[in-house]
User: Which sequence fits this backbone?
């Protein structure tokens, strides 16, 4: 499975990273593997209650087998995320099979970085978040989820903060851009792949935006990951947010693929 996913490492950085996450046991996930003639032609991964992830490189002809497998499994399918054509086709097939309805929730773009471009400086510097920062991390992670994903759950934000703080440092962590000891922006790393890692949870409070803090934080965090031997950094953006897409490209991130998210609603009687 990993060789199949790694053929398009950047586009599959999310499922690869999930599979590499410490503490995630087989019982916490559902894997779908489709083979034809002894060759892997499709891969999907789900960690309920999160949406199903369809891997880049999956053949459209494999979607029917994935639908059949999930329709007879005990796992609830709350939605799907994957390359634009595959996600839409799966959503149509799943709704036809189950009678549910689908809502297009978000269009995203995957970026890959190999070298950090020179960017305008900002006052302050980056540091790894510690347990003492936990209340602020929870506040900002909750605000990030509200803004980026339309979700609000302080308890979930606390669990996410604790996972980041628990490390290990080479696999995940949250970092803060500080000015004279005051945090002004945040970014995280998670989900290592064979050659890279994903940058995520980029957040600056609205009152502090437009001052270059997020740019400086992401640039320095990305530079640090390359410095320790990673070949790439990856990240996802909401295509509706033109500002963040522009910022990441300015740093050196290059678009490698688009993905769509759909949310499923139960059939109405």
Assistant:
């Amino acid at each position: 499975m990993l060789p199949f996913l790694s053929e398009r490492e950047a586009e599959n950085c999310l499922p690869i990273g999930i599979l590499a996450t410490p503490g995630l046991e087989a019982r916490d996930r559902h894997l779908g593997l489709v083979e034809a003639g002894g060759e892997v032609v499709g891969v999907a991964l789900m960690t309920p209650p999160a949406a199903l992830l369809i891997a880049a490189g999956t053949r459209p002809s494999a979607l029917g087998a994935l639908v059949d497998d999930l329709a007879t499994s005990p796992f609830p399918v709350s939605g799907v995320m994957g390359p634009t054509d595959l996600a839409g086709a799966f959503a149509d097939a799943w709704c036809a099979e189950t009678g549910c309805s689908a809502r297009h929730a978000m269009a995203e773009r995957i970026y890959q970085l190999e070298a950090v471009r020179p960017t305008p400086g900002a006052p302050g510097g980056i540091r790894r978040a510690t347990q003492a920062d936990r209340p602020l991390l929870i506040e900002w992670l909750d605000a990030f989820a509200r803004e980026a994903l339309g979700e609000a759950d302080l308890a979930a934000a606390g669990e996410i903060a604790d996972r980041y703080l628990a490390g290990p440092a080479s696999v995940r962590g949250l970092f803060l851009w500080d000015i004279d000891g005051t945090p002004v922006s945040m970014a995280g790393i998670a989900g290592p792949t064979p050659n890279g890692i994903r940058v995520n949870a980029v957040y600056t409070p609205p009152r502090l935006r437009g001052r270059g803090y997020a740019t400086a934080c992401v640039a320095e965090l990305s530079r640090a990951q390359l410095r320790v031997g990673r070949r790439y950094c990856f990240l996802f953006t909401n295509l509706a947010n033109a500002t963040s897409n522009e910022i990441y490209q300015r740093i050196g991130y290059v678009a490698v693929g688009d993905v769509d998210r759909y949310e499923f609603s139960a059939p109405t009687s």
User: Anything to note?
Assistant: The first helix runs from residue 2 to 6.
